[in-house]
Design brief:
The protein is of the alpha/beta class and 258 residues long. Strands 4-5-9-8-7-6-10 form a seven-stranded mixed sheet. It has a four-stranded parallel sheet with strand order 2-1-11-3, sandwiched between helices. The longest helix is centred in the N-terminal third of the chain and has 12 residues. The protein starts with 7 loop residues before the first strand and ends in a 6-residue tail after the last helix.
Length: 258
């Protein structure tokens, strides 16, 4: 989900990672910064060195893991106090016009969407990663808003996140997720043909439309043919930075080890 290795320029990792994982990182051109496992000062030093690389943005695995833990702990009783932090926008999101502000999701808003759309909160596990490495990004329903199509699923439909800059003095410095719900593939197809697409991971997008149930039923439909042609010929905005991966490669790269 997090993208190909050549999407990244650096990895900050503990010094006990398996040699095969380290080799795969280096073979992909990822510069590896090691730190002493369990030593916060050593890790901070490695992160500082990585941050000095030119034209690099950080995406923290810790943000994703923290979100998952807080999501699991979300209840009706604590929702009012819960504000989820989904990190800062990736360079992919920035290239579409999303502002470089931290992304927030309010617990009360999330619960209301769960009730309205009838799905379990577990469907949103890994939402920070899914949003930052989406299938596609579209213009939202109003000026300055965005619709982010993710690889997460509720039954047969992929999850869509609606995002815009917050309003009011408490939210103006944040990107706020106003809704998360499952979106039918045929509705997304119309967005493509209407010219609302701002970014597309072409492989993911073409795979999505080839298996999306509402669209797959009309494989010979002229709209599907048009969607495929648009995606294949779509010119993505220039992504001005690569990512510096702050994570344990064990989590990102499957290995033969348990």
């Amino acid at each position: 989900m997090v993208g190909e290795l050549n999407d990244f320029t650096a990895a900050v990792v503990p010094n006990d990672i398996p040699l095969d994982v380290e080799s795969r990182l280096k073979d992909a051109g990822v510069e590896v910064f090691e730190y002493e496992k369990g030593d916060k000062a050593s890790r901070a030093e490695a992160m500082q060195k990585a941050s000095q690389m030119e034209n690099v943005r950080f995406f923290l695995q810790e943000t994703n893991e923290r979100f998952n833990a807080e999501l699991a702990a979300l209840t009706e009783e604590n929702a009012r106090e819960r504000i989820f932090n989904l990190g800062r926008p990736s360079s992919i999101l920035l290239s579409t016009g999303i502002e470089d502000k931290p992304i927030r999701l309010y617990g009360t808003k999330l619960l209301s969407k769960l009730r309205k759309h009838g799905y379990d909160k577990s469907a949103l596990k890994n939402l920070p990663l899914a949003i930052n490495f989406p299938i596609s990004v579209f213009e939202g329903s109003h000026e300055g808003s965005f619709a982010i199509l993710t690889e997460l699923k509720i039954k047969d439909n992929n999850i869509l996140a609606a995002l815009s800059v917050g309003k009011g003095r408490h939210d103006i410095d944040f990107n706020i997720i106003s809704s998360v719900y499952d979106k039918r593939g045929d509705s997304v197809a119309r967005w493509v043909t209407d010219g609302k697409m701002l970014y597309a991971d072409k492989k993911k997008a073409l795979d999505y439309f080839s298996v999306s149930a509402p669209v797959a039923e009309a494989q010979n439909n002229q709209e599907l043919i048009s969607v495929t042609n648009i995606i294949q010929n779509f010119e993505n905005p220039k992504v001005s930075a690569k990512f510096s991966l702050i994570t344990s490669p064990r989590w990102m790269l499957p290995t033969s080890q348990p």
